[in-house]
Amino acid sequence: MYVSVQLSDDHKSVVLLDQRRLPFHEEYIHFYSASEVAQAIRDMVVRGAPAIAVAAGFGIAVEAERLVNSGNYESYTKNLEKACDWLELSRPTAVNLSWAMKRMRKVLSSEWDSIESLKSAIVNEATRIASEDVAVNYNIAKTGNSLIPSKANIMHICNTGALATVDWGTALGVIRMAHMSGKDIHVWVCETRPRLQGAKLTTFELQQQNIPMTLIVDSAAGYLMQMKKVDLCLAGADRVACNGDTANKIGTYSVACLAKLHNIPFYIVTPLSSIDPDVLSGKEIQVEERSCEEVLRPSGESLVAPDSTPVFNPAFDITPFSFISGFITEVGILQPPFTWQVVNKWKEKLQTTK
Ligand SMILES: CSC[C@@H](O)[C@@H](O)C(=O)COP(=O)(O)O
Q: A Gene Ontology CC term for this entry (predicted)?
């Protein structure tokens, strides 16, 4: 079984499964500093909002180990705070990155009696972020499964599985749980241009789990809905605004519009950590723009359009909350608004029921 992101036993490297090479090569690469991890996140060696948050947390743990003999307590914490800044900036749309770095900064600003004890606290917090991800996604999968009929054709975009998290995944976790519980499900896998996370990664995960699926080009989504071959749609999230507007992989909005037109339920499957109550609506969400090369050379080498064709390549889009039937989370199926007060109440409830 593959693991998208790990901390090496000696805490000297973050080990990432290189998602750019899947499904044909399972290669693990070691990254030895926070700046190397930030670059790996930018290059999408690891991707998916929860997985990049975990990778960034481990990036700080590795940096803490690397810098342990490099200066006094003050310079040590200052350098680690700088590392949090680079990691946070490595991809702008997924709020999980800032959420993880906020947790690491909290550890950095607490009082510790030595560099050694601060370093252990950093490793513990990074490891906790990773293990919480597994538990949270397991709960999401259980909650979501209650919505899946015993026989269903589910449309899914991008990759939201174990590769995008530490294990289970969000939307694909729900699909995995439904399949494990004996439901007769089939997944329409949107290929997800331009980086093909659906074609390369989601098919790989579904195949490993023996879940029936069919790969489609993104533009086939409407036709399938019109033919009444889709019962519901599940997608992940990179940032959910307070009013429920949701940033997710480019193409999600198109699927949501088509689903609304055809009266098909469209759910966002997300941990609470992807909700950003500081952002009031989707208008305030920064959408990452990526290199034109991703569109011009989808498989890396040959051009599919004349050289120097102008390209616009937004990595995400925003689905307005009115297109979303509900948010499947670790605390249940929710509806906005997601104010801090409300989100904190759910988090507290979660703590007390643990
Ligand atoms: C559980 S993953 C949720 C989202 O991060 C996912 O749907 C997505 O859009 C990933 O985009 P990516 O650009 O591959 O990082």
A: nucleus
Q: Using alpha carbons, list the distances in angstroms from residue 341 to 237, 239, 244, 328, 337.
A: 21, 18, 15, 19, 10
Give the active site residues. Answer: 238
**Contact status, residue 325 vs residue 265, Cβ threshold 8 Å:** yes
- Ligand 1 neighbours, Cβ below 6 Å, are 47-50, 94, 158, 160, 164-165, 169-170, 197, 236-238, 248-249, 315
Angle at 179 between CA 174 and CA 182, to 5 degrees: 130
Give the SS3 label for residue 207: helix
Which tens digit of pLDDT belongs to each residue from 22-35? 999 999 999 999 99
For the record, the structure tokens of 230 come out as 């889709």
Q: What are phi and psi of 102, to 5 degrees?
A: -60, -40
Which parts of the chain register pLDDT below 70? 354
Query: Which residue has the least CA distance to atom 1 on ligand 1?
Result: 160
ipTM surpassing 0.95, yes or no?
yes
* Residue that is written with structure tokens 């899947």 in the block: 22
User: Which structure tokens are listed for 225?
Assistant: 């809905």
- pTM for this one? 0.96
Contact yes or no for 217/251 (Cβ under 8 A) = no
- Between the CA of 197 and the centroid of ligand 1 the distance, in Å, is 9
Centre of ligand 1 from the C-alpha of residue 74, in Å = 36
